[in-house]
Amino acid sequence: MLKVVSISLGSSSRNHTVETEIAGKKIMLSRLGTDGDWLKARQLFCELDGKVDAFGLGGMDLYVYIAGKRYTFRQAVRLIEGVHTPVLDGSGLKNTLEKHVINLLQEEGIVKFVDKKILLVSGADRFGMAEALIQTGAQVVFGDLLFGLGLPFPMYNYQTFCRVAQMVLPLITQMPFSLLYPTGEKQTVNTPKFTRFFAEADIIAGDFLFIKRYMPGELEGKIIITNTVTAADIKELADRGVHKVITTTPEFQGRSFGTNVLEAMLVALSGAKTALTAEEYLEIIQRFEIRPRVVDLRVA
Predict the structure, then answer these.
(1) Which long-range contacts (CB under 8 A, 24 or more apart) does 173-177 make?
(2) Residue 170: Cβ within 10 Å count
(3) Domains of the chain: which residue ranges?
(4) Residue 153 backbone zone (phi > 0: left; psi -120 to 50: alpha; other: beta)
(5) Most CB atoms within 10 A, among 54, 196, 243, 256?
(6) Which domain of life is it from (predicted)?
């Protein structure tokens, strides 16, 4: 049996393990949260190195891509230094699968994006999604400065977003990741922030932990396009009036894992010892017919 373990700086309350079968291969997917404990995460990587087929890195990014350039987070490099088992942070799929999913949703009429107002809570860590949303003809508000840095500056222009990202990422990637993204128990705390942008949006897209941390109590009629959600998350969104939840990763026994888990799974299935190319990811996605999860909460 293939084994994939995602080691996350996130809350251990979201831990989960499933066993599934894909293309005749049995595979176990596990998520281990360390509640923001960097040293514990490092210890787990060292203990399990060579004992699993691929690691996912959750709760932080190793890389982000903007306009074809890769930026590397120094703290993430230190976390996995010396680990020989492939470590995937999901960035490869964010630039392939998520772009593919947006195009599929539009082509199949699942979501009509043209002229819709979209709040993308963070475009820097979902550049593929950002590119695809712009190409649909939607009106996208980039929330990177709002939710990543706490600055009251929404970005309404794609070119502005790219320029700002290229200016700040060389600095941001040298900072402790906990200053930029909720880790540990902070992931479970809801502190509504910049709620006007949630209220004005037809569609809210991007990292779910950003959405969950800052969303208001009222989300009537909204569509959420995101990644990792649990059954409890789905219920909470339904209680707030959300009409539809779409995850870019498929469902495994009632749970949508993060892109890091899915990317690690694809690498394990391929037998590769490193990340795949964009073309290889797309080929596997199509071969295994990996599709987004769509939950209509009006009938759920």
Answers:
(1) 173/64, 173/71, 173/72, 173/73, 173/74, 174/74, 176/75, 177/9, 177/59, 177/60, 177/61, 177/73, 177/75, 177/76
(2) 9
(3) 2-90+256-288, 94-251
(4) beta
(5) 54
(6) Bacteria
